[in-house]
Amino acid sequence: MTTDTTIKAVRTLHENGLTRRMISDALDISLSRVGVLISGKSWAEYQREWRVRNPVRFKEHKYRYKLYSRQNYLNGVKTPKRVVTNNCEVCGGKAVKLYYHHWDDSNTLLGMWLCYSCHRVAEYVDSDVTLSLADRYKLVKQAITCEFDIT
């Protein structure tokens, strides 16, 4: 909660020529809050005006949180995905970053949110490899052993 003395201090500093950044640092208040206090408007009014003054930045901010892949976003193609979950849909683990795995390029809604480990397994399972992971491991291990065989 901002007190009357804080509002007066912000406005006085602004009238004396200090920038919003300097006021923010001096009083330990966020830059946007300083802007609101200087203008004397409500937060909603301040946001509306900011959107009008910064249309490009607002558009970038608005689409940053959409569930579209980065490459498609850069190309201007919106790829729909299922709503992101909080946990991996396979192992149920809570991950900092979830990856969207889909198996049908024509319908990206057919997909699931996975942690990194489960996504790697899903990519392997969906690949056209006929050998199981265990069989492939044994073949690679045998090849490396033969390559570095010290006898």
Structure description:
By secondary structure, this protein is mainly alpha-helical. The chain has 2 domains: 4-62, no CATH class; 66-147, no CATH class. Helix content is 54%, strand content 5%. It is built from 8 helices and 2 strands. The chain has helices at 4-15, 20-27, 31-39, 43-53, 55-64, 70-75, 116-126, 133-147; strands spanning 99-102, 111-114. The chain has a two-stranded antiparallel sheet with strand order 1-2. Strand 1 and strand 2 form a beta hairpin. Helix 2 crosses helix 3 (31-39). It is elongated and about 80 Å long. The model has no long low-confidence stretch (mean pLDDT 76).
Proportion of helical residues: 40-55%
Q: Looking across the biggest beta sheet, what order are the strands in?
A: 1-2
For the biggest sheet, the summary is: 2 strands, antiparallel
Shape: elongated
Beta strand %: 5-15%
Helix count, per DSSP?
8
Overall number of strands: 2
Number of domains: 2
Class inferred from helices and paired strands: mainly alpha
First-to-last CA distance:
77 Å
Oligomer: single chain
Q: Average pLDDT value? A: 76
Give me the strand/helix succession: HHHHHHEEHH
